[in-house]
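[agent] plan:
  1. take the single chain provided in the ticket
  2. run structure prediction with default settings
  3. attach structure tokens to the ticket
  4. add a short note for the reviewer (M.T.)
[agent] executing step 1
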Amino acid sequence: MPLDTTEAENIGAALKARTAFVIVQHENGEWEAISDLSKTVTAEHPASVLEMKFGASEVVSDIEASKLAAITAHQLMAMTAQMQQAAQNQSLAHSLKL
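[agent] step 2 finished; step 3 output follows
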């Protein structure tokens, strides 16, 4: 649950947190989560609540798509290895019949 803080509390004070990242929308419209907080970000305007919601949603969607792509690639590699093994077994069986 987000914490409500007043602007006065944020001025000049370091915020202690367990972890942190920033979600930015690039000029081309792409969203990105950045964990390097030393990177300087210059925004055209303060983010609206809808932009925050949409940006976070886009980042989560990208993470899940990357995870799914990795799982699919792993499964394809496993299936390829199985097919290669089956082809080798079939070739060996065929050569033994001769």
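[agent] step 4 note for reviewer: The mean pLDDT is 88.
[agent] ticket updated
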